[in-house]
Write a structure and sequence with these properties.
alpha/beta; Rossmann fold; about 50% helix; disordered C terminus
Length: about 250
């Protein structure tokens, strides 16, 4: 297999295909409210996009065996990203995931949470090593081809050459596509790599506790707000009374 992501299997993307949206694939403590607020503030400070325009977000997930509980949680939470974006502008999401032996796949652009939920429900996690380099390569291609505004990555490990990953991250940084690296757990190797990827792309790193749906929800909603409307969208979010708004308030 080459280093490029591959097309999803028919059974995994049938709902997206019927909609005409299949495409080629391709610190050691837990997060506190301040940590998550720092991510939201970082996104607010780095967004170059205006509110009201259509946003595109690459949603990348580690689907190796250890990730099944978080995959199920992400399935339940992904609709929150669309709901957040609906009040701010609009959002298309391209799901990218890796699992098993050299398997890395991506969907076409999806603009409906029900379609994404159906797709994700068909995917099971499988044992294998991380393939973050392929995620970065796919994000770069989409940044050039379709004006991706941000990349969200959710994972708990890194088993690749950090220098190779950083070279690819630097290319995304030149394209002004921030990566928001959401780390589950406490792996120090993953943390060092994720922090550096976030720095090089102008994005942000944040840890969430294993199984902490509320923490992950806040992060995904903030990322969706960034992708859909940039700084102004996050300002609106900060006055909505949501959990993210309270976190933003702490940073003033």
């Amino acid at each position: 297999m080459t280093g490029e992501p591959t097309k999803p299997r028919p059974g995994e993307v049938s709902s997206a295909a019927r909609a005409g949206k299949t495409g080629s694939l391709l610190d050691t403590k837990s997060s506190t409210a301040d940590d998550i607020a720092a991510f939201v503030a970082k996104a607010r400070a780095t967004s170059p996009h205006a509110a009201g325009s259509r946003g595109r977000l690459v949603f990348a997930l580690d689907a190796t065996m250890s990730r099944q509980p978080t995959w199920d949680m992400a399935c339940a939470l992904q609709a929150d990203m669309f709901r957040e974006a609906a009040a701010l502008g609009s959002l298309d999401i391209r799901l990218v995931y890796y699992r098993g032996f050299n398997e890395c796949r991506a969907t076409g652009w999806i603009s409906d949470s029900a379609e994404l939920a159906k797709l994700m429900s068909k995917i099971d996690c499988r044992g294998g090593n991380t393939q973050i380099g392929k995620v970065l390569s796919e994000a770069r291609r989409e940044a050039v081809a379709s004006a991706v505004r941000a990349v969200v990555f959710v994972g708990d490990a890194m088993e690749e050459s950090v220098d190779d990953l950083c070279a690819k991250a630097g290319e995304l940084g030149l394209l002004k596509v921030p990566m928001f690296m959401f780390q589950e757990g406490h792996d120090p190797t993953a943390e060092r790599a994720f922090r550096e990827i976030a720095r090089l792309t102008g994005g942000a790193w944040c840890r969430f506790d294993p199984g902490a749906a509320a923490q992950l929800r806040e992060l995904l909603r903030a990322a969706a707000a960034y992708a859909a409307g940039g700084r102004e969208a996050l300002k609106r979010l900060s006055s909505s009374g949501s959990g993210a708004a309270k976190l933003l308030g702490q940073m003033k």
